[in-house]
Predict the structure.
Amino acid sequence: MQNELYSIAGGSADSPRIPAHVAIIMDGNGRWAQKRGQMRLAGHRAGVKSVRKAIEFAGQHGIRQLTLFAFSSENWKRPETEVSGLMELFSRALSNETKNLAENNIVFQVVGDLTRFPEKVQTAIAAAEKATAENSGLRLVVAANYGGRWDIARAARILAERALSGSLAPQDINEDLLASSLAVTNDVDLLIRTGGEHRISNFLLWQLAYSEIFITDILWPDFDDRVFQAALDYYQGRERRFGLTSEQVQKRQG
Ligand code: IPE
Ligand code: IPE
Ligand code: MG
């Protein structure tokens, strides 16, 4: 892949109209392939170019963090050929893209229980994280063998261990501390789900508490800038009230 594929320099961030953190449930690969009489795996392969488009769009629009749901903790239950094909695809995509991520100032991170991944995939992930750790641009987080419940249970375990060791008093456990112990530490502003399902599928349960949610019937391999822009337009039309009344929100903004 060539560098111009993510020419993302110059994104303007920090405008309230631009969501700082966008998360995407990249769904619909299997249906996309089946509609064409192809194997499901062909849909996953076709989805890789949509990932590139999403990264590029996020960088160009000044989105600070893009979190992509690539493989859920429940997806292991799929047929063995699909799971192993996906693992192959991950490791190939990682080795093809690492240089490009690094050169485009992207900070790359994978969240999820990686212990179950093949050695080769774990090594490729570690290499990509290391190669991009010093960057300062878009934070690209890929959720792989990730589950929202796994994340919360893991945070609880981390805090319990600290409490047992005496470095944390149980009464000091609050929402902020729990949030900062999660694998994904910041709230999502905008959630996009392709493939039309109106559900969370055990994605970022805690972090989605006040997200705006954009669902489209477009299948992930057909995702492009127009769809991302439609999601941004939708986001910009929402009034984020966080429990307040509309009048209160308008007074604060005025
Ligand atoms: C999402 O597409 C990708 C993964 C879950 C890995 P699907 O494979 O779920 O596609 P559909 O929902 O069956 O069409
Ligand atoms: C969610 O899609 C997981 C990913 C996109 C990686 P699924 O296709 O697994 O979700 P369900 O099974 O339809 O809820
Ligand atoms: Mg699906």
Notes: The first strand starts at residue 21 and ends at 25. The chain has eight helices and six strands. The pocket of IPE (ligand 2) is lined by residues 25-27, 69-72, 75, 197, 199, 201 (CB under 6 Å).
